[in-house]
Amino acid sequence: MTTPEQIKFAHTPTGGECIAGVALTDAKRASKWPAYVDVAQSVTGLILGLFLFCHMAFTSSIQLGKDVFWNLCQISGGRPIFGAEQTWLHFVFVGVITLCVIIHALCALRRFPTSYKQYRDIRGHVALVHHSDTSLWFIQLCTAVVLTGMVFPHVMGMLTAPSTIDANLSSVHTYHNGMIWTLIFLVATELHGMIGLYRLAVKWDVVKGRAHGLRKTMVVVALAMIACGSLTAWTFYSNGAELAGTPAASQHYTTTNVWSINK
Ligand code: HEM
């Protein structure tokens, strides 16, 4: 039996209903899950985007010397509270960030093209619309693919051996990874993170129509982060190159300059 025409075409949606989904509340089986997933993606994206600034401050402390980096590791490892570094605290911290990365990636999966045809449609759409925000979305897609491959090896090393977050061991690790790997990882991370924060501000209308100015600011901040991160990566790399092949390459850095408060 086919649905009678007068029922099938009883209601022709208006432009507003089609575009803004005004009548979705009346739709049968309307689910709230896409909205929940969208909010989860935004919240974890915001946490990770802001985390990147803390991460940059933390890793770049090596520029001020291994002692500064050592003391920061001790503080995040709870020395001021417990009197000595607790590696389980590093595990918990890295674990929480990793969980955010996993939730964020799972929520974002539904936006990925699932066939070559869909991918080609996206490329066509980007070329047709020719708008910076659409192009930025495409950069997000490409950097997300790169990050999915690179971020898990990075955090897994720290999850399985939290004590290796160390001025000497992290340097040797960067040396063995090589500058090319590190720079690709850095550029993908900063582009994805900074474009992501910009898109969040536009999406949740924080900018109130000032997207153009914010876009320029975002590009400047992303370039500054890439420049700063490159210098930091180079410092880790050259420290690692000095240590590689010596007994110190497998030993934790020790300092006499302890300013991370003892209990
Ligand atoms: C709590 C979690 C994390 C900790 C403790 C941490 C720690 C570190 C440390 C110590 C380094 C220096 C060299 C090395 O060991 O590779 C580093 C480098 C790096 N990390 Fe992380 N990381 C964390 C999570 C992340 C995440 C989630 C991302 C990306 C989304 C990321 C991106 C990078 C990049 C691009 C570099 C190399 C460039 C640079 O030195 O700035 N990290 N990280």
> Distance between the terminal alpha carbons, to the nearest Å?
79 Å
**What name does CATH use for the topology?**
3 helical TM bundles of succinate and fumarate reductases
Second-tier CATH architecture: Up-down Bundle
Total individual domains: 1
SS strand fraction: under 5%
Using the alpha-carbon principal axes, give the shape.
elongated
CATH superfamily descriptor: Fumarate reductase/succinate dehydrogenase, transmembrane subunit
SSE layout and pairings?
Layout: H1 5-8, H2 15-20, H3 33-60, H4 66-76, H5 79-82, H6 87-108, H7 116-129, H8 132-160, H9 167-177, H10 179-203, H11 211-243
Helix pairs in contact: 3-6, 3-10, 3-11, 6-8, 8-10, 9-11, 10-11
Bound molecules: protoporphyrin IX containing FE.
Protoporphyrin IX containing FE binds next to helix 3, helix 6, helix 8, helix 9 and helix 10.
List keywords for this structure.
263 residues, mainly alpha, 3 helical TM bundles of succinate and fumarate reductases, binds protoporphyrin IX containing FE
Description of the molecule:
The protein is mainly alpha-helical. It has one domain (about 35-250): Fumarate reductase/succinate dehydrogenase, transmembrane subunit (3 helical TM bundles of succinate and fumarate reductases). Helices cover about 70% and strands about 0% of the residues. The protein has eleven helices and no strands. It is elongated and about 85 Å long.
